[in-house]
Here is the input.
Amino acid sequence: MNARKNALKKLIEAEYNGVVASMAKAVDIDASYLTRCLWPKSKNGAKEIGVAIRDKIAAKHPNWDIDLKIQKIPKETFSDDDELLSEFHRIKDPSIRREIIGYVRGIAAATLSNQAKKSRRNTSTNPPQKKAA
Here is the structure.
């Protein structure tokens, strides 16, 4: 299964209890079409997740494929924040700048969410100790 199909499957499991029809209704996509998007390429009738489908899903779930987007970001090392900001300001196309800001927001949201989950797990597995009287 390719990465985008895997991301779609995870989204359906996490947000719609695995019910493709519920997600299809929520994002205004025909349920049979969305189901076929999950099929392997080799199966007759399988569909790709094209731009139109991706955008419909993103309208309701903006970061549904954030892991895929993060993988496409080149790994750069900057000596400090000023160097990074200088590179950003060299980008003149506002749509590209907005896209970069969107990626950063998605990465930040995913990071904060993961940190919160880890914190909750640590709290539930290591409850605070009562002080001896």
Observations:
- Residues 94-125 form the longest helix (32 residues).
